[in-house]
Write a structure and sequence with these properties.
9 helices; single chain; about 170 residues
Length: about 170
């Protein structure tokens, strides 16, 4: 599916649409919110785990893409400099069809441009990307229980799409 979408990009005009979707995920990326959006006293434990798990992701974004955003809590949104956003947009516009499809697909499934970039740049493993992406959900599962036929299917779909995106980039780079 990813390969056929990438091939179709050469005959359609959706490359820019994919760039815009990726930028939207960047602005609303789950990695900037390091606390559970609830006002429970025990969410500090989750925030600490998130901060530790996401450290390789945020360091990679800073080193490779010069993206550094403040962490946010609650309903805040990060404030990026316009120069940072423009630089990242230019980077995305310069991605080839396979790279843009892989990045957009991974970001759509894990709701994080940051985790997806780190994954596709080989800075983190598929398992670590899964862990980071599902951290809040797994926290809720531990608290409220696992729903078979829902949580397991979502996890399998996420793993499949992250692996497929990473595989596409790896094969392209051969």
């Amino acid at each position: 599916h990813l390969v056929s979408t990438a091939i179709d990009l050469s005959t359609t005009q959706i490359h820019e649409l994919l760039v815009e979707r990726i930028l939207a995920f960047l602005h609303n990326d789950t990695i900037w919110d390091v606390t559970l959006i609830s006002y429970r006293e025990d969410s500090e434990e989750l925030a600490l785990k998130q901060e530790q798990a996401l450290k390789p992701v945020t360091q990679h974004l800073k080193q490779k893409y010069s993206i550094e955003a403040p962490t946010c809590t609650g309903f805040e949104s990060p404030k990026f400099s316009e120069a940072s956003v423009e630089q990242f947009k230019t980077h995305c516009q310069n991605l080839d069809n396979y790279q843009i499809v892989a990045l957009e697909s991974a970001a759509s499934f894990c709701k994080s441009t940051g985790i997806s970039l780190a994954l596709l740049d080989m800075a983190i493993s598929i398992e670590h990307a899964m862990f980071c992406s599902r951290m809040e959900e797994n926290f809720q599962i531990a608290e409220h229980g696992y729903v078979e036929g829902s949580h397991d299917v979502e996890e399998a779909n996420l793993r499949m799409m992250l692996a497929a995106s990473r595989c596409l980039i790896s094969l392209k780079n051969l």
